[in-house]
Amino acid sequence: MHPSLKVAFAIVLSCSCTVAFAQTSALFRSYDCREHGEPVVEEITQDFLQILKDSITAAVTRSIVDIEPEPLFIEVDTIDGWKSWAFVENFAFGKNRGDLPMITDLNSLHPFFRDRIIELIDACRQKGIELAIVETYRTPSKQHEYKTMGKKYTSSGAGRSKHQYGLAIDLVPIVDSVAIWDNAALWRKIGVTGEKLGLRWGGRWKKPYDPGHFEWTGGASTYNLVAGGFPQVPNMEHYPCLDEDLRILRRYWSEWEVSQSSLTRK
């Protein structure tokens, strides 16, 4: 039992004994005729009860304060976590996007960018627009596959897309369980919402016009990304473990690349 709790119980026991003694002592003292037979009652004053209550409350409070909380440990799989990432196969959203699977897991994105995408999805939902995730992180092998499929897919080779750095995502609105790719008015609502969150929207591009694409670079150029850098994150106090998170992400991205590149050699 905690020491402070022992003190509290001791106070209660002591006070109980005092009250019992006050009530029973009158039964065993000598008879005094001057009392005219009137029974003697020892009264417990309200002040005494309040002091007793305050003492118990203080002791219990100290016992709670003195108890140190057990540390909370969250176990993160830093080895095989990439294997649990969600992905979809070709034609999942009604379009030919190549043979290699598309990663759709938000955890594969740069943490700051991931949080902005969560805000985008929530903001669109509040407007009655449901968004599906088509692709998040993209391996160099997957990027190369798109490049071989023609310029309508991409003009960027492996390592030249923001997808390879967890800084881009492809989305599509869903209406009655169907992916809607050709509704310009709907895309504009989504695009403007993303831009208000500081994201770059592919719907502003002409070649290729890519309304489902959103990215964030924080001012970092493709050259910086290729060289191994990442954009400076505002509000770093919200991401105290960013360096470690990015280190783990790089490892996961590498594992996915090994997996997908092996498929292209078969």
Helix and strand sequence: HHEEHEHEEHEEHH
Question: What ranges have pLDDT less than 50 throughout 5 or more consecutive residues?
Answer: 15-37
How many separate helices? 7
**Rg, please?**
35 Å
Per CATH, which architecture of the largest domain?
2-Layer Sandwich
Distance between the termini: 66 Å
The main β sheet shows up as: 5 strands, antiparallel
Instruction: Count structural domains.
Output: 2
Which CATH class of the largest domain is shown?
Alpha Beta
- As for the CATH topology of the largest domain, it is Muramoyl-pentapeptide Carboxypeptidase, domain 2
The class by helix and strand makeup works out as alpha+beta
Compute the number of strand runs. Answer: 7
The quaternary state of the protein chains shown equals single chain
Structural shape: elongated
Mean pLDDT: 83
- Residue share in helix: 40-55%
Characterize the structure shown.
The protein is an alpha+beta fold. The protein contains 7 helices and 7 strands; from the N terminus they run H-H-E-E-H-E-H-E-E-H-E-E-H-H. 41% of the residues lie in helices and 9% in strands. The longest helix has 23 residues, at 242-264. The model is unreliable at 15-37 (pLDDT under 50).
Kindly summarize this structure in a few lines:
The chain is of the alpha+beta class and 266 residues long. It has helices at 3-24, 46-66, 111-126, 140-148, 184-196, 222-226, 242-264, and strands spanning 87-88, 102-103, 130-135, 168-175, 178-179, 200-201, 213-215. It has seven helices and seven strands.
